[in-house]
Design goal:
Layout lengths: L1 H30 L22 E6 L11 H10 L5 E6 L6 H6 L3 E4 L12 H8 L6 E4 L5 E2 L2 H9 L6 E6 L1 E3 L5 E2 L6 E2 L8 H14 L7 E6 L20 H12 L3 E4 L6 E4 L13 H18 L11 E5 L2 E6 L4 E2 L14 H10 L25 H8 L5 E7 L4 H13 L5 E5 L2 H9 L4 E3 L17 H19 L3 E5 L3 E3 L4 H5 L5 E6 L14 E8 L3 H16 L4 H9 L7 E2 L3 E4 L4 E5 L19 H8 L3 E3 L6 H10 L5 E2 L4 E2 L3
Parallel strand pairs: 1-2, 1-4, 2-3, 6-11, 7-12, 16-17, 16-19, 17-18, 21-25
Antiparallel strand pairs: 4-10, 5-12, 6-10, 8-9, 13-14, 14-15, 19-22, 20-26, 21-22, 23-24, 24-25, 27-28
Helix pairs in contact: 13-15, 15-16
Bound molecules: 2-acetamido-2-deoxy-beta-D-glucopyranose (NAG) (8 copies).
Family: Belongs to the glycosyltransferase 77 family.
Enzyme class: transferase
Main location: Golgi
């Protein structure tokens, strides 16, 4: 009797325990929509091994937005739904946080990379920045590409390889996508409310891939060991989403042999919406202004690529009967060595080949670009007049620099500094064709001065030389042209290092005032002494007195055998300083233009207080709250560059072709 009672007791304990387990199981099943058979969902649950941490890098142009019906919105939702291990880093010039609210903490916004004046992100800047994020796998892709869950399975498999790899996969375009996200964000529903099956989507994609013959299809790159570079060469300043660079990276990675490069197109289902004709980055009403970006990328690829004339085929990653395998396309052999020890069930050749022939696999279209094709000159669709409204700030002000080829690295360092200070409204006037072509390839807003003297690209175009005299006359003419077009100009030579943005202060001087740096070094004399007006840093307003006065300067310079600097002073302050007012101004009587010499503590010239001789120039200048420091009062281009580099006021790494963090 006793025993029976005990048994009954045990049974009830066991039963209630079972019930609890069953209940909690039911509970979890309720919470997780994956319990429903058939329809797929995005979830890491289907992956056996611990899923790797995946970071997807992408970027938006300034004009793009993430509205709920944008393609990028649809796509990024699909990525975040793949697995909780997926993080998305979205590079965007504006740091508006409204999308992070919609997507949660796994979407990170990063606005620290460099963009062109049209807001196009630089790829090399994105990739350099990607190294700052800890991850098992890094992915680079277009923001409009939608991913399906086989993406994570393929990456999880690949992540078990015992060597470093680079996965390449191309996406197909589909004309429309008639499904909507479910409220939970885990799966799609059809118009009639039914869930969409994974197989249906896959079929849709593989059907499309046979019809589509677009070679410009979007490509996904994914790689492990994110600290190891993808390739051996140095990435040129490619523009993101403007073609060529996927090809370039694949070529370089193949030739470098640090990574196993393979094509996973047939195992990864990804697509984007729309025909090639009406995608926002290929806007039919915009091709004239956008084409150069694609051509520029192709130039960069040809200029800096190493393998562009060689034809090759990538090994393919295939999936068949739930097994992954690599197939070497050139001999259709299966590379089992890669899979050794991974418990893959395929051992018999005939089974494999049957499997391969059944796999109607999509694959990557690699175009061969001939390296020895002559690189035609780039045609940039902008001139001064069309650039001004694009770059000017709200006060219709632009920062103008004028450069010849021998100063191209210094120009880039100056540009990097302005980018770092978030001063986007600069313009470059190129004195020669080389500088012009170079600047276009760097994504700079550049225009060419057709009246510029042709041969100024040598080392000795320093202060006082004949060359210098001719170049400086280009400057005042160009400034005058811009003033007449209705824009204010801050002219800054490339050898002026900016510590802070001086524009708000310079704007505050008001109309009829031209603010200029003083070249006086003697601390006990007035800063407006004769010929101490520095014409390498001044702010001119587009108003009648300034325009009239600049016209006088240009006329004076045209007939003078000297550089324009004395013309500036003699015209605006009178010969011998006849029009001086107090210790720091002049008043030109005919035009009523006031010249304001800038406080040397805030705008020191290169000889003032021997600042360049100081151990720590930056600290010294920051202590004084300098806005800029001119690297003048030194002779020779190389000495000038050396001084600036030695003092740590150089922000361009010419060997890496990119701006450097200080
Ligand atoms: C494929 O390319 C050919 C010309 O190369 C073109 O006529 C055809 O329309 C293209 N097909 C598709 C589906 O884009
Ligand atoms: C592209 O154009 C077609 C026809 O005008 C339109 O139906 C489709 O929605 C457009 N796609 C996108 C992505 O704008
Ligand atoms: C195409 O460009 C024009 C002008 O920049 C713009 O107004 C229009 O909205 C763009 N269309 C698309 C589909 O992006
Ligand atoms: C593919 O096979 C060819 C010929 O057997 C061989 O030369 C090549 O190295 C293989 N490629 C890879 C990536 O295994
Ligand atoms: C500039 O070029 C012309 C011909 O191209 C040449 O005759 C002249 O000497 C050059 N000037 C200088 C300063 O090198
Ligand atoms: C525009 O000018 C006003 C004063 O004239 C100034 O306060 C403001 O900072 C300027 N804006 C920029 C972007 O420089
Ligand atoms: C600065 O000017 C004063 C007065 O003219 C003069 O005595 C002094 O020698 C000058 N100093 C330098 C370094 O030129
Ligand atoms: C300059 O100012 C004076 C006095 O204020 C005035 O009489 C004269 O007309 C002005 N000249 C111009 C060109 O505005």
């Amino acid at each position: 009797m006793k025993l029976k009672g005990l048994r009954a007791g045990l049974l009830s304990v066991w039963l209630s325990g079972f019930l609890l387990i069953a209940l909690s199981f039911y509970g979890t099943q309720l919470l997780s929509p994956s319990s429903l058979d058939g329809p797929f969902r995005y979830s890491s649950r289907s992956i056996a091994a611990a899923p790797p941490k995946i970071t997807i890098f992408t970027a938006l142009r300034s004009s793009s937005s993430l509205d709920e019906d944008s393609q990028a919105f649809l796509a990024i939702r699909s990525w975040l739904a793949l697995s909780s291990q997926v993080t998305v880093v979205l590079f965007s010039p504006s740091s508006a946080s409204s999308f992070t609210d919609k997507f949660g903490s796994r979407l990170l916004l990063d606005s620290t990379i460099d963009f062109t004046f049209l807001g196009t992100p630089f790829l090399h800047s994105m990739l350099a920045r990607s190294e700052a994020y800890q991850s098992d796998i890094a992915v680079l892709m277009d923001p409009e590409t939608v991913l399906l869950p086989d993406f994570v399975s393929a990456l999880s498999f690949t992540n078990q390889l015992d060597r470093d790899w680079l996965l390449v996969s191309s996406s197909v375009s589909i004309p429309s996508f008639p499904f909507n996200w479910d409220k939970t964000g885990h799966f799609w529903r059809q118009g009639n409310g039914k869930r969409v099956r994974f197989g249906e989507l896959q079929k849709m994609i593989s059907l499309r891939s046979w019809q589509s013959n677009s070679t410009e299809s979007k490509t996904i790159l994914a790689w492990n060991n994110v600290d190891l570079p993808l390739h051996c060469g140095v990435l040129p300043p490619f523009l993101y989403q403007r073609g060529t660079y996927n090809q370039w990276i694949i070529n370089e990675a193949m030739s470098c042999k640090r990574r196993f490069v393979f094509d996973a197109t047939s195992t990864i289902s990804s697509f984007y919406l729309g025909n090639e004709d009406n995608r926002s980055d290929n806007n039919v009403s915009e091709p004239k202004t956008r084409n150069w970006e694609y051509i520029g990328n192709s130039h960069l690829g040809q200029l800096y690529g190493s393998l562009f004339s060689k034809s090759f085929t990538l090994p393919k990653l295939l999936k068949c009967n739930k097994h992954y395998m690599f197939v070497n396309v050139s001999d259709r052999s299966v590379d089992l060595s890669i899979l050794e020890g991974k418990g893959v069930g395929f051992r018999r050749r005939e089974k494999i080949s049957a499997c391969i022939s059944r796999t109607k696999s999509r694959s990557l279209n690699l175009d061969i670009v001939q390296k020895d094709e002559a690189v035609p000159l780039l045609k940039f669709p902008f001139d001064l007049q069309s650039l001004l409204p694009l770059v000017a700030d709200k006060n219709r002000t632009v920062v103008l620099s004028i450069a010849g080829y021998s100063y191209k690295d210094m120009l880039m360092s100056w540009v990097c500094r302005l980018r770092r200070l978030k001063v986007p409204n600069f313009l470059v006037c190129a004195l020669d064709d080389e500088t012009y072509q170079f600047s276009i390839l760097q994504g700079l807003p550049v225009f060419f001065d057709p009246y510029a003297p042709k041969n100024i690209s040598f080392n000795d175009c320093h202060f006082g030389s004949k060359c210098f005299q001719r170049v400086t006359k280009v400057k005042s003419r160009t400034v005058l042209k811009i003033l007449k077009l209705g824009y204010n100009v801050l002219l800054s030579d490339v050898d002026v290092y900016w510590f802070r943005n001086p524009l708000p202060l310079l704007q505050s001087f008001g109309p009829s005032v031209l603010a200029a740096q003083s070249d006086e070094y003697n601390r006990t004399v007035p800063i407006n002494r004769p010929r101490r007006l520095n014409s390498g840093f001044y702010f001119a307003r587009s108003d009648a007195p300034t325009i009239a006065a600049m016209e006088k300067v240009v006329k004076h310079a045209a007939t003078s055998g000297l550089s324009e600097q004395p013309s500036f002073y003699d015209t605006l302050c009178g010969e011998g300083g006849a029009y001086r007012l107090g210790d720091d101004r002049c008043l030109e009587p005919e035009t009523n233009l006031t010249v304001q010499f800038l406080d040397r503590e805030l705008f020191p010239n290169g000889a003032y207080r021997d600042l360049w001789l100081k151990e720590d120039v930056r600290a010294e200048c920051e202590k004084k709250h300098c806005f800029v420091l001119h690297n003048n009062w030194i002779s020779g281009r190389l000495k000038k560059i050396e001084r600036q580099m030695m003092r740590g006021l150089w922000e361009y790494d010419a060997s890496m072709r990119m701006c450097v963090e200080l």
